[in-house]
Design a protein that fits this description.
The structure is a homodimer of 133-residue chains.
Chain A: H1 3-12, H2 18-31, H3 34-46, E1 49-50, H4 51-57, H5 63-75, E2 79-84, E3 90-95, H6 97-115, H7 117-132
Antiparallel strand pairs in A: 1-3, 2-3
Helix pairs in contact in A: 3-6
The structure holds a DNA duplex (20 and 20 nucleotides).
Chain lengths: 133, 133
DNA sequence: CAGAATCCCGTTGGATACTG
DNA sequence: CAGTATCCAACGGGATTCTG
C-alpha cells in the first residue's frame, strides 16, 4: 500500500465528527496497551486459558496487573470469564468474537514487529552513534 | 479469518526462539503506546508536520510528552526529524518507510476500533449492570 | 517556533501478605 | 488456585519557566 492510498483510506473513515473521533481515540488508548496485547496474543495462540496459565505465559506481568488487565478486557467485552465451582477454583478465560476481531486486527502489528526487528535495532544503533558522534 | 486459522498463522511465525520472542515483545511494548499510535495516525493523514502542528492535532498531549514521544520514534527509526535553519526555527517530522509500515499494520486496529465502538460501549454497560445487579 | 530544564503530584505497578 | 488488600517506590506526565 502506498503512502497516498493509505492516507486516503484513513481519511475516508467516518470519523469526521470530532466527538466520535474522541471516542475512538479513547478506545485505542485503552486497548493499545502492552499487557492487553500480549494477553490477546496468548489467548489466540493457546485458546482458552486458566488464570495461572496466563500468568506464566505472560512473562514479567505481576498478578495484580494480570487481574486488572483481565477485568478491563472482560469489561470491554474482549474476553469471557467462566468460573467452575470446584475446589480448588478453576477460572477460564477465552476470547470473545470482539476480542478475536481485535486479535486479527493487531496481528498485522505483530507481524510487522517481527519483520522489522532488525531494522529497528539498526535504527537505534545509528541514532546512538549520531548522538555520541 | 477463523479462530483456528488465525492461531495457526500466529504459531507459524518464526518466534520459536524465546530470545527472539522477548525482543519482539519488547518492541510491541515500546510501540503499542497511545501517543505513538496517535502521532503515527496524524502523520499518515497529514503527511509531514511541524512540531506545533503535531501538538495541536494530538489533542491532550503535553509538550513534554510530544517531545519525548517524537524522540523515541526518531530513535526507533519511525520518523525523520528535519531542522530548517531559519528564524523562527522550523522543524519538520515525517514518517519513514518503517513508520509507514507500522502505520499500515496499525490501520487494522484503528478500523476495528471504529467498527466496534458500539459493541464495546454495549459490553461496558452490560458489565456494569452485572456488577450492580 | 521548538524545544530544554525544573518542579511536583498523581497514578501505575511491584512486592508481600492474607482468604475462600 | 484465583484472587483481594495493603503498602510503598518509581515513574509518568502536567504546569511553568527559560532559551536560541
Amino acid at each position: 500500500m502506498s503512502a497516498d492510498s493509505l492516507r486516503e483510506h484513513l481519511q475516508s473513515l467516518p470519523e469526521t465528527d470530532p466527538e466520535l473521533d474522541r471516542l475512538v481515540t479513547q478506545i485505542i488508548g485503552r486497548v493499545a496497551d502492552k499487557w492487553t496485547m500480549l494477553l490477546i496474543e496468548i489467548l489466540t495462540e493457546q485458546g482458552e486459558c486458566r488464570f495461572g496459565e496466563l500468568g506464566r505465559a505472560c512473562e514479567g506481568i505481576s498478578q495484580k496487573m494480570l487481574t486488572q488487565t483481565l477485568r478491563a478486557m472482560e469489561r470491554d467485552g474482549l474476553v469471557t470469564r467462566t468460573v467452575h465451582p470446584v475446589v480448588p477454583p478453576k477460572v477460564v478465560y477465552a476470547l470473545t468474537e470482539l476480542g478475536l476481531g481485535l486479535s486479527e486486527a493487531f496481528c498485522g502489528v505483530w507481524t510487522w514487529a517481527e519483520r522489522n526487528r532488525e531494522k529497528i535495532e539498526q535504527a537505534r544503533a545509528e541514532f546512538l552513534a549520531r548522538q555520541e558522534g
